[in-house]
Design a protein that fits this description.
single chain, 92 residues, alpha+beta, Alpha-Beta Plaits, 2 helices, elongated, DUF503 domain-containing protein, DUF503
Length: 92
Amino acid sequence: MILSASVECIIYDAQSLKEKRSVLKKIIARIQNRYNIAIAEVDQQNVWQRTKLVLVTVGSSRTVAEQELQKGLALIDSFPEIERTETVFEWF
């Protein structure tokens, strides 16, 4: 099973693209190092305080893929600099 999640987020304290990218770089690196998840910023790259990330994972079953992706989403939620506003899941 392939599961993807499109995540829209707000980065409240970012006052420049440099600050935004430093927050995203930290989040993306931790997710890629800890979990079997591919992650990328796919929209709103030139907006200071908003971003859209897509997380994708592959698992042997729906439950395994969903558990892995939930771990990645929980990691995003653990950062105080960023707030997840909308999450859309898709199964393939």
